[in-house]
Amino acid sequence: MRIGLFATCLGDTLFPEAVKSTAVLLARLGHDVVFPPEQTCCGQMHVNTGYQREPVPLVRNFADQFGDASIEAVVMPSGSCAGSVRHQHEIVAERYGDAALRAGVATVKAKTYELSELLVDVLDVEDVGAYFPHRVTYHPTCHSLRMLRVGDKPLKLLRAVDSIDLVELPEAESCCGFGGTFAVKNAETSTAMLQDKMRNIATTGADVCTAGDSSCLMHIGGGLSRIRSGTRTLHLAQILSATRTSPYVPTEAVR
């Protein structure tokens, strides 16, 4: 399958390893991964903050970059960005776009997936040949859980990983408190929610807390590092891309 890879803003600027790992994983599974070079932000941050007209150029660019018929599917290592493309782009196009934009959005929406959705629902694979001999707990992010409804697809993929010690996260479906600008505008509430999430992570004794969104992992990871918890955060794609011949190496071991 020819798959278009969308990096996302956070992936491009702060967490490129999650994007690289997505490409490595899909290529290892035998797929042709393409990266449209003119891709930009999906516009999610604008819509979430109440600016629905402003992201029209971004939505149009996304439809142009990934609308090529030769691209059979579009994948992104982000439930929130996938949710934006599948839900918000249509709203923006209907309210402020033209007929061409609405058609382009509909075409791309139909073939856009978050990583776990693509693997389980489209490529029909759960065991991707990964190897990760560490204790791991999984945080289901709000957009993947409530907007995309990915369900237990990430857990199915994790359960199939060789040598992993996967432990259940108490109150897993509770929000971590990030929510983009919510964490800035409602800092005290966000911090309280994060403290609950970190406390639950601590009970698992996990070496790694994983999720499908770098944004939530940034929020959780920042909190865990400040209290020196010993638990690191790692994107789901990085776990799934690790193998016995190319294992995951913690950054401390590289320095």
From TrEMBL:
Residue stretches making up the Cysteine-rich domain: 4-85, 136-220
InterPro entries: Cys_rich_dom (IPR004017)
Pfam family of the protein (one): CCG
PANTHER family per record: LACTATE UTILIZATION PROTEIN A (PTHR30296:SF0), UNCHARACTERIZED PROTEIN YKGE (PTHR30296)
Protein name as annotated: (Fe-S)-binding protein
Source organism of this protein record: Streptomyces pulveraceus
